[in-house]
User: What shape does this take?
Amino acid sequence: MTAEEAFREHHEAVYRFLYRMTRSPETAADLTQECFMVLLQQPDRFDPARGAMKTYLFAIARNLALHHLRRERPSEELFDDDERWAQDSGRHLASSIAVADAIATLSPLQREALILFQYEGMTLDEIARLTGVDVGAVKSRLYRARETLKTILSPVRGGAQ
Amino acid sequence: MMDEREPNPLSDEQLDELLQSWRAPAAPSAELHRAIFGAPAPAPEPWWRRLWSWQLRLPAPAFAMLLLMMIFMGWRWSAAERRAPQVVIEHNTEVRTVEVASNNPSAEASVKPAVCRRRPAQPRADNSGAFGGMRPESELKARVIQGGYEQN
Assistant: This one.
């Protein structure tokens, strides 16, 4: 698979993941570009025997996102981005922002586990391989993330009904 | 008096439903492609060009089998061509000049037709008649066989 084919197939998913990790469309675009530049400049680093192209790209994206989160702190303007992207109005918009805020309070490792499982449809095995931990650790991160979100988001219950 | 009741945590179903409300924007594909590959994403090729550059991946054993089958069929066809009888019809025309003024037919002026066969003609069976090889018997010698019927 060439870099261009990989881009065509996976750039949307990589971008979505990075957007949810960073909550900034601009940062997500920058990091997506950086992710595919790594693939373009060092194509030999991808070993099909070790996993699928998607897993490899998400591993790069994850490292970039965690590196970014260590450097930057979420800024106020990100709230506006959520408003800009939410298509619905009223209660749905409120719940969407609340969810984004709630997920932002999770630790980066819990956040990535939740995003990969909940939004990108990855299996526990895939997440474990991607993050370099065993399946038990992934389950634990997911469980703790969900329990935290259940508590934080309970006042927004109306939006879920 | 303060209300110390905390809201009950959400159920799994309620949480899943809430999580789905957070949508991500579409990726800026054209900008990203231009930034990474230095050119905008190419337009999709027309169908005839895709057909022209169509490729088929064939496992090596299947290809070898196909090749062997084609060689075998080619050999069979050429062998059948060689076995088929070749009929050659030859027309020989001989021109002789005959002097008409002398009104004396020349002995040499005869044209002898000749039939050329590639294969020797098969000897033909004698079809002169059903009784061709038989001759009338001048004297009959009768012989009586005793015993009658035999039992099996």
In short: The first helix of chain B runs from residue 12 to 19. The two ends of chain B are 133 Å apart (CA to CA). Residues 49 and 85 of chain B are 48 Å apart (CA to CA). Chain B touches chain A through 28 residues (CB under 8 Å).
